[in-house]
Amino acid sequence: MHVFVTGGTGTIGSAVVAELLGNGHTVLALARSDGSAQTLENAGAKVLRGEIADLDVLRSGAAQCDGVISLAFGRDYSSPDALTQAIAEESAALTVLGQELIGSDRPIVTVSGTPWVPGRASTEADPLPTDGPVGGRGRSVNALLDLASRGVRSTAVRMPRTVHNEGKGGFAGLLADTARRTGVAGYPGDGTQRWPAVHALDAAVLFRLALESAPAGTAWHAVADEGDAVRDIATVVGRRLGLPVEAVSEETFGPFGPIFAMDQSASSTHTRNALRWQPTHPSLLEDLENIQP
């Protein structure tokens, strides 16, 4: 397959591009800078210059390819307004990409987060939240999956709160960045809340499997670790950085504070059984040992 990939230089995207190229596919990847373009070309991908907000460029990329993997998302999480803007851009991009594929039976795989279900691990059958801080993502993903009835093999891979590689990435990475900034490896609440996690290289395999064979209108969980206690995550971060580990206020983590405080474990039993996906790379707590002081 010739696959159009957005967000191809991020933690997940770079792993997805390598996974596709290593399994017989070719890649056309969106690049917004000279540096990103060079990185993608060095990996073996062809480059389409533009940004996620360039809707005509996105339409052109989808038109040239046999399938799409949409991973691009804004990088500014410094305020609720910035997060809202990133969600709005992603929603517009998914709308354009989906419309381009209507009636073609071509696949498009997008990304979202695993849902939160009080008292138990969420599953692939649980709906995404459509309200709250990230409700807009749920609404745009649902709209894309609804295109299954219009000749689009649309699927969604739901990512856990931490996608990691070499001790970096996801919520655990943000926690480590906050620790470096504040001098404390902090956690909100009592730290018993759980975050699911997956290694980026394992997640990349699932994106490929979904692209190749997942039925239209389906959602999958890229979850390797069902739930690590946030206090345990902070403990490894603190030890690696030589910083004290203690409870801090939610406000320490900006717009992510309320999300950081939630217990949000998730299961991937159905995904593993149906798509024969089996994570093989280090767990989050093992991988955090790669954090550099």
Automatic annotation (TrEMBL):
NAD-dependent epimerase/dehydratase domain: residues covered: 3-215
Pfam families hit by this protein: Epimerase (PF01370)
Signal peptide residue numbers: none
InterPro entries: Epimerase_deHydtase, NAD(P)-bd_dom_sf, NAD(P)-dependent_oxidoreduct
Region (Disordered) location: 114-136
Domain of life: Bacteria
Name used for this protein in its record: SDR family oxidoreductase
The organism of origin for this protein: Streptomyces smyrnaeus
